[in-house]
Amino acid sequence: MENFDLKKQTPNLIVMALLVTLPLWINYVSYTQLGTQVVVMGLAAMALNFLLGYTGVLSFGHAAYFGLGAYGAAMTIRYIEPSTGLGVIVGTLAGMLAAMLIGPMIVRLRGVYFAMVTIAFGQVFYFIAFRWNTVTGGDDGLTGWKRMPLDFGFAKLDIQRDPTTFYYFVLVIFVIAVAIMGLLLRSPFGRTLIAIRENERRTRFMGINVNLHIWMSWVISCTFMALAGSMSALLNNFVDPRAFFWRQSGVFVIMCVMGGMRSFWGPMMGAAIYVWLQDYLSSATPNWQSFVGLVFVVVVLFFPRGVMGIIRRKATE
Amino acid sequence: MTNNGSSSKFDRRTLIKAGAVIGAAQLVSPFVRTARAADVVKIGVDNPLTGTYAALGKNEALGMAMAVDEINAKGGILGKKVELAIEDSTSGDAGTAVQKARKLIDRDQVNFIIGNINSALAQAIANVANEKSVFHVVPGGHTDSVTGQNCHWNTFRVCNTTQTEASAVATSLIKNAGKKWYYLTPDYAFGHSLQAGLEAAAAKLGGVKVGGDLTPLGTTDFSSYLIKAQAANPDVIIFLQAGDDAVNALKQAVQFGLDKKFHLAGAQQELEVLLGLPPEARIGTWVFEWYWNQPNVPGVKEFVAEVRKRSGGHVPTARTWFGYASIHTCALAAAQANSLDAVKMARAMQGFKLPPEIALMPDGAYYRAGQNQLIPDLYVGHAQSTGKDDPEDLFVVETVVKGADVSPTLEETMCKQDWPA
Predict the structure, then answer these.
(1) B203: CATH
(2) Which residues in chain A have Cβ-Cβ distances shorter than 8 Å to B88?
(3) Per-residue DSSP letters for B38-86?
(4) What pTM was computed for the model?
């Protein structure tokens, strides 16, 4: 950050300004809860994009880590200790640990095989959550817990009752997570990932351990996914096995593609569009998924670089 | 895709732009939100419109709409017009139901929330409503815990608990069919608690469980389960499915010829399910929670006639009545408390007896204090393949059971209400 390039920082500043002021204007358009949902889903989509957009590896099973984060947080608060902070930490670590263990089994695979095996692992978690009624609550979801106010010792933050406070809590976590991902991508490590995406064989010939890098990218991506999952559980005070389901993984991929995989903020944009479309359309018609599908098809056919791709093209013109 | 030399005036860009404009026009409307009029009472409905329970949900919606019209014709709730805000909860996605409940409460700022047919979703909505202190009515989700272990001061339930239904039907089943039972149970809260209820009720009368299977919600092919049931050689095969699952299960059981070898039965049965079955599959002993053919109960005939007008000639089902009674419960609570404050309304409904023109049952119905569970009559009888006077008269009521006689006691329900200080 030796010389601050205003032009380069413009997108970051715009997104941040919009997110920070969100509670002020969201009520004219929607409601705070939905704003929080956008930030949570945005984090999830950006986490997936770390792997999908910047390493060029398609995972169709990221919902597994989203779900692990969600169940980790929920079960910690429900069974171990009613502490929001501990829940988030346990949830995130659970996702990270699972990713570290599953990673070595799949990093050798490429393309559709990688995607298929990630789905398979995701479904394993789905069925565990679905079947293990006594612990996970089965198909009914895990209830009987709620997010607790944060207690820092010197100050208390009531994220339980006040939706705006909770929104800012989620936003702070979001900003930290996104900053870490952004810095990682600017580092030599991030450049290596992009090199793998662009030409894997050439990268290998340069003496770079491609599988290790993919494994690291996978673990980072899944960890932030789990963080998003734990936020999502806190948001709803509820979690059910559909958080693990492959369809949820598909939704994350749709968000990335709709917003633009090659752009840092693209997945966030895609998440905002998807969440808002779902919220609005599902009130208007039970067939809302057809319309979301239609938008997706239009984007893929006409704007392969997503919504951010259009904006960028306009900007360069 | 890169056909730049195209001479056509209507090129791809024009199409995209036109599409974008049309799309944007569709999306602008929600920005123009009408200010929430102070003279309107909003009732949020978070009930299935799609999936397994779509048909049941539509009938409940019809009953609700009818009740709203009646209430508005009499001056509304506390002099304010009543409006419904309806959201599709889906039939089995609790996450969506929770999100919709929050949307109704946070954005639409509803005074009441109603839902759900699926017990799991009903429980999830109840937790949200409790967190936000909104008066909540469950029209048709039966699992015990909603007004039992996980009961809340603000959640009222119109339909029966599964335990009550099981106790009502168990006596008749043991007497008519036999003691060895095999269970086919839908794999979610309602199914589990219904099976547990039946097992407990049967055990008291000497019944035994010879086997059972959990079937996922939305199963269409029951053949493997039916083959297993046949192999266990029970007296009775108990079907606990609801909605489309029940139609599929019973249809296939008859195709397999199981009705010739065993007694097919269950606890809860619905007119929607019987209507969906081929005539030969309309068999077995069941309990109905409300039935339209009650010639000796005043008010029922008028209710049926009004529903027929709205439904294109169809009779009301228990679901229509659930929806109808749910909305009236909201209106009665407000009138009784003379307030829209949830705590005052919930206090006013403790032990409240529904007026006969809404209860529409020989012995009436009341909300049991300390549990908020409606205690109505139950109708035990058997299905019949064709109605004599009406094609939709597919059930023969043998006995009307008083809910108070078969309901577990308040201690047995384990309900402890968490009233705000």
Answers:
(1) 3.40.50.2300
(2) 282, 286
(3) TTEEEEEEEE-SSSTTHHHHHHHHHHHHHHHHHHHHTT-BTTBEEEEEE
(4) 0.78
